[in-house]
Amino acid sequence: MITVSSLSKEFNHTEVLKNIDLQVNASEIVVLLGPSGSGKSTLLRCLNGLEELSGGRFEVNGIGVDAAAPRRTRTAAYREIRKHTGMVFQQFNLYPHKTALGNVIESLLTVKKMPREQAVPVGRELLKRVGLAEKEDAYPSRLSGGQQQRVAIARALAMDPAVMLFDEPTSALDPELVGEVLGVMRGLARDGMTMLVVTHEMKFAREVADKIVFMADGAIVEEAAPDVFFEQP
Ligand code: ADP
Ligand code: ADP
């Protein structure tokens, strides 16, 4: 589903991703661990076209992006990839002037050009899936951080993505709200969603991941099944 080959990324002549090779198969949950600044977020952002890669190539859901290709070829590929990829950030990034339901159906209306009467039932179903059926009319400011993040997940799911990318989705939450977001992510994993997750939640990583990828200083230094990874001295 995701194949990364010799990917590198420079910021101001400093290489922050070095020769990254990574594979995420369909329905796999891969958790990226590593110290702050090791390049986890940049890797996710490259896959979604939020950052340009400096070298190498990758493929998401059969759509290839190559650093050596002309920029407009890559731009077209990123556009396609975003249609098949849901991304959830540390900050929830909801539209403050739209209700929960409005946030969830926004991309259905604007990207998929779905008529509103068709989008609303889809949006309601997605809110139900993240446990927020009764909050459809609430504005983000009236929702807890955990609820806002669940709306953000429902919004990402609205495009019916083949892959979900999570960049520290619980790091901005009060501890008591982390569980409700991880619960939704566990549900997605059970449903067979392909997921690449950056998180500091070790219990989630240990229990849900099929594979742990450990990064340090812009490189992948270890890849192992969670039982092997967490058994080490
Ligand atoms: P992580 O997600 O593992 O904490 P990041 O991917 O955020 O790491 O950062 C990797 C490195 O890239 C860090 O040294 C960071 O300072 C640098 N970096 C990230 N984004 C930018 C940017 N827009 N411009 C310059 N340097 C950046
Ligand atoms: P109150 O309970 O204070 O009367 P409501 O929640 O009923 O306020 O909201 C009344 C109207 O105000 C809503 O229909 C909406 O248009 C607007 N509104 C409420 N909350 C927000 C918000 N966070 N951002 C923007 N508009 C809002």
Brief summary of the model shown:
Pfam families: ABC_tran. This protein has helices at about 40-45, 70-85, 100-110, 115-130, 145-155, 175-190, 200-210, 225-230; strands spanning about 1-10, 15-25, 30-35, 55-60, 65, 85-90, 165, 195-200, 210-215, 220-225.
In angstroms, what separates the terminal alpha carbons?
Answer: 32 Å
Helix content: 25-40%
Beta-strand share of residues: 25-35%
Q: What is the β-strand count?
A: 10
Mean pLDDT: 96
Number of helices: 8
Which residue ranges are poorly predicted, with pLDDT under 50 across at least 5 consecutive positions?
Answer: none
Secondary-structure element order, as H and E? EEEHEEHEHHHEHEHEEH
Alpha-beta classification: alpha/beta
Bound molecules: adenosine-5'-diphosphate
Let me know the largest β-sheet: 6 strands, mixed
- What general form does the structure show? globular
Describe the structure.
The chain has 233 residues and is of the alpha/beta class. The chain has 8 helices and 10 strands. The protein has helices spanning 40-47, 71-84, 100-110, 116-129, 145-157, 175-190, 202-208, 226-229; strands at residues 2-11, 14-24, 29-33, 55-60, 63-66, 85-88, 163-167, 194-198, 211-216, 219-224. The strands form 2 sheets. It has a 6-stranded mixed β-sheet, with helices on both faces. Strand 1 and strand 2 (14-24) form a beta hairpin. Helix 5 (145-157) runs parallel beside helix 6 (175-190). It is globular and about 45 Å long. The two termini are 32 Å apart. The mean pLDDT is 96.
